[in-house]
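Regression test attached.
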Amino acid sequence: MVRLVWVVFVKEALDLLRDRRALFFLFAPPLLIPFLGGIGGAFIVWQVARQTRGGLPVAVVNGEQLPGLIATLEDVDMLQLVSVPSDLEELLKSGELMALLDVPPGASELLKAEKPVTLTLTSSRSGWLPDLAVASITGALDEYADGVLAERLAHRELEWSWIEPIRLERRSAAPAGVASTSVVAEAVPSSLGSIFLSLTVASWAFSGGLNMVAYMTVGEKERHTMESLLIAPVSRIGIVLGKIALSIIVSVITIGLWSLDSLAYTFLLSYLPTGSRGLVAPVTAQLESLGLAIVWLVLLMLPLMTMSNGLVAAVCAFAKNYRESNLFLGVLQLLLPALALLATFGIGPTPPLSVYALPVVGVLVAMRDLFGGGVAPGTLALTWAASAVYAVGAILLAAYVFSREWALMRGV
Amino acid sequence: MIDIKRLTKRFKKLVAVDTVSFTCHDGEVFGLLGPNGAGKTTLLRLLATTLEPTAGTALVDGMDVRRESGRVRARIGLLVETAGLYARFTPREHLRFYGRLHHLDGVQLERRVNAVLEMLEMADFADRRAEGFSVGMCRRVILGEALVHDPPNVILDEPTAGLDVMSTRSVRALITRFRDEGRCVLISTHLMDEAQRLCDRVAIIHRGCLQAVDTPAALIAQTNAVNLEEAFVRIVGEEQLRADLWRQKQKYRWYQFWRRGRLEDRLNG
């Protein structure tokens, strides 16, 4: 049996390796997209640097009213403060002046009296350079306002914490064993992360190698090679296993590549020098707690992928041709968002153990809890065992369909 | 040897093969003749175990196609009329793959692959990918797949369909060679000339039923025909005529019944 699985696997692998188009669509996106993204990012940075060299021209009317603000604006590299020209309107319209900040007369006195001051910011015509100027001015204004507020607080001998009367410290009471964790715990609520995670993971499981399985099963009918294959004196389950083995390996490679991409981006985001603090927490601090969760994620993914491949092999072995198999696959894939929604919203935070043993939904709920509220290792083990049973069942179903003339001779 | 007894295959209401019995001996070329849709290919698929019989038995070298399908498959080589190739594989790789599926390996596999490549004159294109092969080249590769494990029983479905004169001649020579080697050769064809020239015995099938089994010469004599084609037309034609007459009669009966009913309705009403 092992030899047969190997023979079929090698044949399918060789066929795939020679199919440049299939290889491109499988492996090029995860390999090329980060590269292209990098090129795109570098281009944007280069263009910004080129077009803002010397600073974006902005003017402040009545700037002498708020010398502190002027000093803050002068510190912004992106901006170039110019004296107020006489033909303001025309310069703004033509884009030679990117933005105009109008300070009202008596602004200094108003601030001293601890009263609010309303400034007017007029930007040039729409475009990314005026928007950049506006964003830079707004940032500088916020910084200046923080300084004014700090002065006021100091004047009244109050601490900065005075304006923050209530603080929230978030904790998670995860069951012992596998703690809840989230890469962006501070930025994104964990439930949101778990929704996307379960949907993404399920999509991976039902997408990666599915077209390959279709090619390897219904493709045999389309190429009229099915009959020659069936009259070989070998077990049909061996043929099915050989085909599914390749699709699982390909799925694992593509998912691995996409995961590496995501990890690389997360690292990049966490080490961005300025303006990104608080957006993404440094990953290194989270890796330790993530490790176990990722191991479980992989463990849960494997039987789910095997099951999906087995199911698709069964469906595609039944299909007459690619067109029919695409119809069946479409219906299968439509079920996914429904199952992900059911797992995330339809099932409560502490479902009975039997839910974790349900096909597909059990894995999705376990993943939701793994990266959301936390889950006990025993429950994860139950989910894994149930998924493994379903995976074996799906392979047996595929082998059964692959040995039935009512399925195989359709379209032959 | 292939021994078929009252073999039947039904697809829902359609009886594709209806209680067919005959024996094809070793060292014999046995021809299955019949018009399109007669049930020839279904019969060959039953022997190749890709279809399961509804009733009856078929033995290949004494092994039942239903109970010992794996062992039967090891003892037959089937050339399917509509079979295709893997476009990105060379003929040599095709033969290796099917050889491995028939449990050949190592030196033995390479020896068989080379022998088949030589036998079917495929040396010129043995290492070229199958994409863009002519019909003749494809047929030779598919025939090679059927022969790579050196089967004692060879089943060929329309072996010369779509081939040019030279390829047809070489396939015919090969069939004669198989007979001389003592193999049991079962071919299905609708080329009467080919059947008359190649087959030791022929069976004529029509609408799934066996109409006649004998040597071509005996069938010609029985029907007072000048050749096998005429004999075939007489056998199948008479059967066809009888069937058509019967169908017309049935239709006429229903028509009469319907007319009488309408007449009675009119008289009554």
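Expected vs. actual: identical. The first strand of chain A starts at residue 56 and ends at 61.
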